[in-house]
Structure formats: C-alpha cells, structure tokens
Design goal:
4-stranded antiparallel beta sheet, 327 residues, elongated, 7 helices, 11-stranded mixed beta sheet, alpha+beta, 19% helix
C-alpha cells in the first residue's frame, strides 16, 4: 500500500484522472476496476471514479508496486490491460503469432506501447508465466520480424534456449517461410526466380534493385509461383532464399508487377482502382526443416503451421482456399 496526500495543485481533479497522471503505467480499465473494488481509498473509504479531490485528502492505493514505476521501454507492456494476440501455437518454449497489418513488432519513434512484443509480454505476464521482477528473468523476444503493414507468422521465444536455437535455425535456413502476395498483372513466366542486388537508401527508408553489384548492395533471391489470376491481379506464393528489407515488394515492383496496395513501391492510381490501402502481403506458412541438432526444440522438426484465412485472398480471389491452395 502507498499513501498520498493531495496538495493544492492537484485539488479539483477527478479521482480517475489523478490516478492516470500519477500512475501512467496503470491501464485505464484496471484503474476503474481497482476503484470499484475499493483498492483505492479516499480518506479511508471507497470512492467513485468521478469524485473531485480536495487539498488534504489522503489517498491509500492498494495497487501492485510495478505500476508505481517510471515508464520505460522495458515496462511498457504494463499499459496493455487486454493483450490482443492471434496465437497459432504455444508451448513452454515459444509462441507462433499471426500478426495483423498495422501493428509494429518493436517500439519505434512513433509507437512505444502498442507493439507485438509488448502484447506478448503482457500476455505472458498476466498468465504468470513471466515476470521481469524475478531474479535473472529472461525477457520474451521475437525471433523474426515483418513490416508494420505486412501480416503473418512471427516466432516469439519464451526461453533463452528457444531464442538461441531459433536464431541459429533462421540463420542456417532450417526454417521455411512462405508468403502470399497479390501483384498487378500476369507474371510471365508464371513460376520462376527473381534475382538482383538490393541497395537501401537510409534517408528515404526505401530499397532499390540493382542488376549488378554496387557498394552497399546485398544479393536478393525470391522464388515465386502463380496460384491464381483474376481481374488483372495475380495471387502469388513466394519463398525467400534471402531475407532482405522490403525484398518481395521491391523485386516485384522492379519486375513491373508491384504489390497491390503498396504505396511506396507501387502505383497509387492502380491501388485506388482496386480500393486497397496497405500492401497485400502475408507470411502465411512456416515449416521447421531442421537438418542439425535443435536441442530442446527437436520436437518441432518436420512440423508446419499455416494461417487459416488471409483478408486480401478472400476479397480479390473469392473461393480460393489458403489451406488447400486451390479453388
């Protein structure tokens, strides 16, 4: 329990608004719950959320100590009272989460709280499977990343062993990640390989495809096959041989077939014709193809997971089954 005495500068405030200012890590819905449960007392008695505080009031807060901390990137997960996750698989070592487009995986300049890793940490914290306050506690971490506006499967390690093994398997290409995308036009040939060198312009946050090596450029190889064609669009499955920033988006745009809805590498006019905002790109299938020892994760070898539905497939290729790969 912590006790506060209201001074003249805080007099006149509503109780719930004073709580929000004093305990910025305490989620609003949880604060309302604590008030209802009388874990917030004003002058020794329970109160209402809209009561106006006066100078000299004594507040007693029966609230967990972590909510009194100063906000930092490490404790931002506390703000998420109801973590939102689409979990494909979970065990004691890892989580496979189907990330929605629009959600960033890590905190950045424009978003500090509503991130995938914060939702995962909040979920595990509320399940009492993880706490940063335990001695030598391992912080759950992401093993792979996907762009903000790309949806799909992200691997989260719940243990240090899982993180170590997954990082090695990803580095050695013992995992297969397949993507679905919709591109403008009809690919010729319908199945093949895109190869080149990707050079990133840091100022523009954009990559450019080069046909021959240039300083700073990295090789990029994408295998693709057309699954369906409809109304000037192609549904394509991609297998990344290399995993570069914006690889699929930049390579298809350079080939004359930009992704539907891609505002950076595509055509705004064409995207408007189809009413699409945000690139039609989804990491939809993950397979563990271990060829070397996987330690504590050996049980995953040979297993695969796949999302059940992808919004842009339903919209632009109605009747196509993501699960079966056919109409």
């Amino acid at each position: 329990m912590k006790e506060f005495v209201i001074g003249k500068n805080d007099a006149g405030q509503r109780l719930d608004r004073w709580l929000a200012k004093t305990l910025p890590l305490l989620p609003g819905p949880l604060a309302q719950k604590y008030i209802r449960l009388k874990r917030v007392k004003v002058n020794g008695k329970g109160s209402q959320k809209d009561v106006r505080l006066t100078a000299g009031d004594v507040l007693q807060l029966y609230i967990n100590d972590e909510f009194f901390e100063t906000p930092t990137p490490e404790n931002a997960f506390l703000k998420l009272f109801r973590p939102q996750l689409d979990i494909l698989y979970e065990d004691g070592h890892l989580l496979l989460v189907n990330k929605k487009p629009g959600l960033v995986v890590h905190a950045g300049e424009h978003e500090k709280v509503n991130t995938l890793i914060n939702h995962i940490q909040a979920y595990l914290y509320q399940k009492k499977e993880w706490s940063p306050y335990d001695e030598h506690s391992f912080a759950p971490a992401l093993c792979n990343r996907i762009d903000r506006n790309t949806g799909g499967i992200v691997i989260a390690a719940k243990t240090a062993e899982a993180l170590r093994v997954m990082n090695q398997k990803i580095r050695d290409r013992e995992l297969t990640k397949r993507y679905l995308c919709v591109v403008h036009g009809k690919l010729n040939p319908p199945e093949g390989k895109l190869e080149g060198y990707l050079w990133k312009d840091e100022a523009k946050k954009q990559v450019f495809v080069k046909q021959r090596p240039v300083p700073g450029a990295r090789t990029a190889v994408t295998l693709y096959r057309t699954l369906a064609v409809r109304k000037g669009l192609s549904l394509v499955e991609c297998d990344l041989i290399t995993g570069r920033t914006h690889q699929i988006r930049a390579q298809f745009a350079a080939a004359g077939h930009p992704l539907l809805g891609d505002g950076k590498y595509g055509s705004e006019r064409k995207n408007k014709e189809y009413g699409r905002n945000g690139q039609a790109l989804w990491s939809y299938r993950l397979s563990f193809d271990f060829t070397t020892d996987a330690g504590a994760l050996e049980y995953l070898s040979g297993q695969s997971w796949q999302v059940e539905r992808v919004d842009f497939v339903d919209e632009y290729f109605p009747g196509f089954s993501v699960q079966n790969g056919e109409k």
